[in-house]
Every structure is written in structure tokens, then in C-alpha cells.
Amino acid sequence: MKLKNKTAIITGSSQGIGRGIAERFAQEGANVVVNYIGNMEMANEVVQNAQNIGANAIAVQGDVSKVADIENLFANAISSFGQVDILINNAGVERHAPFWEVTEKDYDFVMNVNTKGTFFCAQAMAKHLIETKRRGKIVNISSVHEDLPFPNFTAYCVSKGGIKMLTRNLAVELGQYGINVNNIAPGAIETPINKNLLNNPNKLNYLLGQIPLKRLGQPEDVAGLAVFLSSDEADYVTGSTFFVDGGLTWFYEEQ
Q: Looking at the domain that runs over 7-251, which CATH code has it been given?
């Protein structure tokens, strides 16, 4: 098992990509900290699935847009497992609106969860690792839209572009402490955040026509790469973005 005896915090892991990563990490022997904001039932289900295969897991409620909640998340993880070795910054949201109709409230919501949350979770992780003089891994979950324009989702694209640069900067700044920082940029993954797409056959078929592999991705497609980047096998990998998109990025045209 590639992550045996490692402790991992996965933000926003009660569903979607985060859940896929949490459950795969449990299979790889990690102690799993399932972070959620509202759905305790789903978070507990992830914990139970992990425990059913012999892994240790806890659920911790917390809004990553609030530094106090981030501090509580890490305190719970350290209290339960003694240390944190891996941080997966997965929590993310989006809002659909033409650029000229985006409200301040929606802009702040997207930026606070996606970019501010990633920033301060990474900061808490860096502090913990530096203070305990240990190596560790930070993996940010971005999006193909850190590079690929996505009309009517401008705030989301801006937030993911920020994560791209944050990853690069932290890889340089934290490398001296043995902290690896990488970025996964998923494409069209079959998760609740894409429910509107999944329920629109015309848009879905159009999108599938632009994916060379001719299918949507699954959370498991992202989870496998997250395991590698969090393992000892990736000790010399840092500051990189890895696209998990079925080839979409280089074959995309907005409808």
C-alpha cells in the first residue's frame, strides 16, 4: 500500500472527486480525514466505507473559506492521528452567470472557497510540517479552466488560475523544507458539480464529441494520480500541473 501509515486531509471529500480520493487513499492504507461543510450523512458514509476496509478515518466539518475552521480541521486531524503528511485541496464551487451579471456575493463565494481556502489550508499544512521538521505533500485540485476559457464562469476560471500560480510559487518557496506541491487539473468529471451538464443530452453529446477518449472522467481517474503525487514515488515531482481530461484541453471549442 503506497500510503500506509500516512495521514491525509482531503477537503470537500463527502462527494465527487474528493470522495473518490478519500476512498482510494483508504485503500492505500492512509488515515483519512474527511472534510465536509454541510452533508454530515455523506461524510459519515465515506468514513464508514474507509473503516470497512480496515482504514482509520474521521469526519470533520469545516468551511475552508474561514481560517478558524481550517485551524480546527488540522487540530482534529493531529489530535486523532498525531500528524498530517498529505493535504489534498479539493473543495471547490462555481457560479454560472454572464460576466456583466456576476454579483459581488457570488464572486466572493467562489474566490473564498477555491482560492482563499486553498491558500490558507496550504499555509496551515506548511506550518505544521516546518514545525515538526517533516517532509510532506500538498496536492491542489484545480481545473482545465485554469488555462481554458469558460464563458459564463469567469470567477471560477480566475480562481483556478490563481491555484495554478499558487502551486508554482509554493513549490519554489517550500521546496527547501522537503514539501512537494503539485496540481491536478481535471476536465469533465462525472460529479454533482456537473449535474446540469449531465441532465442536458445536447450539451453532453457536444462535449463528448470534443473529448478524444469519448467519455467523461470518473473520480477514480483523478484519485489514482492523487495517490502517486502523495506517495514516495513522487518525491522529485513538484511545481507541476497534471491534466486529467481525456485530451479535452487540446481539442476544445466552446459551443
A: 3.40.50.720
